[in-house]
Amino acid sequence: MKAGRLRHRVDIQARQDVQDPNTGDVTPTWVTVWPNVPAAIEPLSAREFIAAQAVQSQVVARITMRYRQGLDASMRILHKSTVYDIAGLLPDKDSGLEYFTIPVSAGVNNG
């Protein structure tokens, strides 16, 4: 994968439950696992969006980034002020260890 395609910088966050020591209440928070990750964010074309609706009605973009061990669909991706929910991880077809194509939906993932 050419580095020039990865012109966006995103943060990858994982959900972490924090328990209040006084009340015992558990509050979900998001912790940045990987900051400033190079990625390519491509909005889906109208044709791709219609095709994606059959599988995932909220998919609005495709993010491509280099392979990262430990990345999973329970995490979320931040780009500027946009929160992207990960719909799935599609590894590259050759080795599965070079890059991911990630279908995402835009919205607020509060956990």
In short:
By secondary structure, the chain is mainly beta. 7% of the residues lie in helices and 51% in strands.
Low-pLDDT runs of 5+ residues are: none
Percent of residues in helices comes to: under 10%
What's the Cα radius of gyration?
A: 15 Å
Q: Tell me the distance between the termini.
A: 32 Å
Please tell me the overall pLDDT. 84
Quaternary organisation of the protein chains: single chain
What is the H/E order?
EEHEEEEE
State the shape. elongated
Describe the structure.
The protein is mainly β and 111 residues long. 7% of the residues lie in helices and 51% in strands. The protein has one helix at residues 46-53; strands spanning 8-19, 26-43, 59-66, 76-79, 82-86, 90-91, 99-106. The protein has a six-stranded antiparallel β-barrel. The relative contact order is 0.23.
